[in-house]
Structure formats: structure tokens, C-alpha cells
Amino acid sequence: MAQTSAPATDHAPALRSRDIASHPVPTGREEEWRFTPLAPIADLLSGQAPLNGGADVDAEADPGARVEFVGTDDARVGRTFLPTDIASARAMAAAAQALIVTLPREWQGVARVAVRGRGEDVAGHMVIEAEPFSEGTVLVDFRGSGRYVGALEIRVGDGARLTVVSLQDWSTDGVHLGEHHASLGRDSRLLMGHITLGGQIVRIAPKVSYQAPGGDAELLGLFFADAGQHLEHRVFIDHDTPHCRSSVLYKGALQGDGSHTVWIGDVLVRSQAVGVDTYEVNRNLILTDGARADSVPNLELETGEIVGAGHASATGRFDDEQLFYLQSRGIPADLARVLVVRGFFADVLHRIGQPELTQRVMRTVDGRLGVVALDGEAGDEELAE
Amino acid sequence: MTTLAISNLHATVETDAGAREILRGVTLTVESGQTHAVMGPNGSGKSTLAYVIAVPPKDPVPEGSITLDGQDVLAMSVDERARAGLFLAMQYPVEIPGVSVSNFLRTSVTAVRGEAPKLRTWVKEMKGAMEALQIDPAFAERSVNEGFSGGEKKRHEILQLELLKPKIAVLDETDSGLDVDALKVVAEGVNRFQADGTTGTLLITHYTRILRYIHPDYVHVFVDGRIVESGGPELATKLEDEGYERFLKAGAST
Ligand SMILES: Nc1ncnc2c1ncn2[C@@H]1O[C@H](COP(=O)(O)OP(=O)(O)O)[C@@H](O)[C@H]1O
Ligand SMILES: [Mg+2]
């Protein structure tokens, strides 16, 4: 299907529909698919490999929150999200049930969702409903093997403050195609985090839109691609409402032959969205030869009546000066590299603010850079005693 | 007893116009208990000398040797040199985003001492050293050198000097860009480091001002890549009065 939309809305998905037949099968020439290796997922996109509807999903929450599994015909499913591509449409049709996590009005607490791949091709669907003035954190943990396709829809009620962090740490064969769509109510705040470490192909497409003025979305991402991994994050912020904010920061590290990361940052400020403040940044650190980072920020302003708008993107190699400074203080080269990469990720992890996820990322960094454990880490534990 | 022996040291840099000789035969011995001041005009090669001691140069040394207690320094990598007991306080310390000062210090102290310091004593030691250098305790949680003022960077270099306690310290223009108060604080740090007589210091400077607070045993005048005159502290006084003019002429005529 040729794309002939007007330039200003170039990057807004042309189609939103549950109907599989309405979505074309990607050929790889489409802007949305040109970076993704299609061969390993062609059978999923074409439907040749049918998705099993019974994803292994487990959820628990602090008292008061509701965790339910419902049919995908439930009225709360598809309110915030409709598939924008054929993979999502197939998944939504195939999913036997949807998980709904409801954080009641003024509720405070944490909910955890675990999705475990069992080597099959599975579809899933999740809905997070943060009711007005709730202050919740939802941690979603994707692990295991096989291929998972599924959406995450997030509804942030008026005045609610919600943190949703999803960890993608699949086995080496893992494939994950997911759209994460959030809609923000009046004066609400959403922190959406993506930490993507493991998997052969992980392609996450977060989208944010606003129901009323005063919404504030912060998107934070961290990815580390090793040899042969394709990790893709396609952010779309749809500023369709006046006086809302968005702040986007994704940081990636890459090493090894054929490691590939893609970051797309589409921000659209529509003509009615006056008083918007938006800023997006992607930084990538290339650790070895043979790695490739694609970074495409795109800011489209249909109105000039805004508070601020900007973007930045930079991809660089290890700073020899930094390594040299650390080594000049006796720190061996491999440990110096670990410190620099840990430091590179530090601001994102600090802002995400989940110590156990920080630990997990740091362990992955240490392991992938060939250092068993930093002495400093033992020290931190000692300190905690 | 430690000896850093520099003998007939040459260094070149590759330029568009071919190899250029920056160090042209430097011979100098620093022993524990001694403070040597190397003084010279801008561009004379002082930083090149400092770096060649602590860091393997891009262009290998064509002639001469550096040994630390008989060990061949030129054969060591930069981190090996630090673990062998050499330390370079840099003129332009590097910023490392996201790496906290406390994490950095503990990691380097662990590397240099060969074992992690006990946490309880370490925290006390670090806090004490920071206090002595009038460094705000909040510094421990800031990223290394990031957003530090010139004076803060230099104090942070001396903090490392005191905690790592190398055998031989090389200070490259640690005094430049400091106001008098900061200069005194930094000088006191160097004097504490040097106090017990087990370490040696090679103090590289352009100005005589710092020598009011750090008293060298030996002063070397460095011009055009080599030492043109050596003497005691009185040589610094002479330099203060006469400047480098006389030596520049002497350097040119040889
Ligand atoms: N990488 C380099 N390429 C070319 N010339 C250099 C390089 N590094 C230093 N130099 C030159 O070597 C000389 C000595 O420099 P330096 O050691 O920094 O002197 P000082 O510290 O005494 O001011 C200067 O003339 C400088 O321009
Ligand atoms: Mg210099």
C-alpha cells in the first residue's frame, strides 16, 4: 500500500484496525519495516505460522489492585489501542484472553507481570488501567524463548501517576513484536520505561497520546545489543492536545558482529496542541566494530505556539580519553570499559528508579564485557547491611 | 627507598611535516623523600615529559629509558604503571559521565592496592581525605570531573594522589588556574603526601608561585626539550627575578 499522507502527519500510523485483512503484509520496503530483518518473522506476518493464543502470563499486585484475565471482546480491551500493523492485528485476533491490571482510584502500590516464553509462537494482550489519582508502578518482565507478539495498552486516569517499565530479556532465540500504547488523562503523569537486553529480534513501538491538557509523559529506554541481536524501539508521541509534555531519552550500547539497534523518535505536534513542551534524545555507544546503530529523530510541528520542542541524537564510540583516565589510576582496561558503559546508562537507570532492574542491567553489562563482578558492587552490598 | 631514573630520554611526535623531536635527551633521577621542580616556558615539552612517564606515548620513545626501581617503565601499559606506583596529576582531567567519584576512587584504590579496602575504614579514609582538601562531601556522588570547576578538578587530582599514595607523583601544572586559597589547599595536600619521606614528587610548573608552598629540594630549568640547568631552591628564586630569558638564549646556543 502506497503512503500518500500529507507531510505533517507522515509518521502517524495510517491505519488502526483489528481487521487482519485491512493490514498489508510488509515487504521490507515500507518506512516502518525497512530496518527490521523480515526473514525470521515472515511466517508470523504472513500468517503461515499461526500464533497460539495462550501466552504464559502471570500477574500479582499489592492489595487492592485487581488482576483479571478476560476475553478480548471485553469493553476495556481495545479502548486505547487498535493494531497499526498486521503483526498486532494477528496477535489481537489470536489472543485467547487479555490481562487487565486495574489500579483503583487513589491506590498506591506495585504490580508485577511476568511473561514467560516456552519456545512457541504465542500471542498476548495486556491492559493497564490506572484510575484517577492512583500512584502505581507496574513492572512487566518478558523472558524465555520463542516468539511473542502482543500489545500493551495503558490508560492513565486524571491526576494519576503511573510508572510502567517493561524488561525484554529473552533467550538468544527470542522474538518480540509489541506495540505499547498509552493514553494520558488530565494532569496525569506517565513514566514508561523500556529495558531491552535479550532476544534475537525485539521490536517495540511505544506510542503516547493525550485525552486532556496537563498530561506529562516521560519515556526512558535502555538497550544493549550483542552479536546478532536486532533491538528496535519506535517511539511515536502524538501531541494532539494542548498544554501537555513529553520527554524521551533512549540510550543504547552495541557490541559484536551484526549487533543492530534502531531508534525512531517521531514526535508530532498537531495544530491544536498549543503550549506543548517536548524533547527527545537518543544516544548510542558503539563498543566494537561490526555494530550498527540507526537513529532517526523526527519532530513535526504543525503549530509554532509551543513552550519548547527539540531533539538530539548522537552515536559514538568509546571515548579513549575516558578509558585512559581510568587506566591511569590503575584500573585495568576491561574494568575501565565496564565503568564507562555503566556510567553511560546511569542517568536512564536513575530516572527509571527501580534498583532491581538497575542491578540486572549492571550484571548484564559486566557479563557481556567479560568482568565477573565489580568490587564496588560487593561494597554497595556491605554498605546496605 | 624508591628511585625513578630517567636517562637520555627522547620523545617525538609525528606531524604533517614529519617526526618532530619534543624531548631531546632528558636525564633526571627522583628518589623517595625528594621533591624536584621542573620549570620551563610554555611549549618547552614539560607536559610531554610528564605524560611519557605515566602513559605509553603514541609514537614510541626512540631513545633513552625510564626505570622505577629498576623496572622498565616504558614496557608497561598505563594501568600497569599506575599499579607499579606512578601517578600523574593531569593538567586537564577527563570527565566521565555517570561514574561517581566514590565508585571511581574505590575502584582505583582497589586496583592499585591489590585488594578492596574494608568498607568501614574506607569510608572514613575517603571522607577524611576530602575534608582535608576542603572538598564538599556531596562530591562523592557526583560524576567524575563532570561540571567541576578548574579548582575542583585539581583538588580531585590531589585527592586521588593522597588516597592512591603512589611511589612517585608527577604533577603537571597542578598550580595553573588556581586562586591563592585553592593553591594553598592543593599544596598542603602535596606536602602531606610527601611528608613521611617514602615518596618522591616531580613538580612541573611554569610559575614560581607554587614554590612558596611546596619547597623543592631540586630545581631544574627546562627549555626546548631538555634540562639546561639544575640546582637547589635558590635557582627558583633566580628564575623569579630573571625569568626564562637567559635560559632561552642558552638553550638556543647549544
Ligand atoms: N601531538 C602533538 N603534535 C604536534 N606537536 C605537539 C603535540 N604534542 C605536543 N606538541 C608540541 O610539543 C611542544 C611541547 O608541548 P608540551 O609538552 O605540551 O609543552 P609544555 O607542557 O611545556 O607547554 C609544543 O611545541 C607542542 O606544540
Ligand atoms: Mg603543559
Question: What does it look like?
Answer:
- The complex is a heterodimer of chains A (385) and B (254).
- Chain A is an alpha/beta fold.
- Chain A folds into 2 domains: 3-317, no CATH class; 319-385, no CATH class.
- Chain A is built from 6 helices and 16 strands.
- Chain A has helices at 42-46, 86-94, 320-327, 333-352, 355-368, 375-384, and strands at 56-61, 66-70, 98-103, 108-130, 135-156, 161-170, 175-184, 189-198, 201-210, 216-225, 230-239, 245-254, 259-269, 277-286, 291-301, 308-317.
- Chain A has a 16-stranded mixed β-sheet that branches.
- The radius of gyration of chain A is 20 Å and the shape is globular.
- Chain B has a domain at 3-92 and 167-252: Rossmann fold (3-Layer(aba) Sandwich), CATH 3.40.50.
- In chain B, strand 11 (218-223) and strand 12 (226-231) form a beta hairpin.
- In chain B, helix 5 (150-164) runs parallel beside helix 6.
- Adenosine-5'-diphosphate is lined by residues 13, 15, 22, 40, 42-48 of chain B.
- The site of adenosine-5'-diphosphate has 11 residues of chain B, from strand 1 and helix 1.
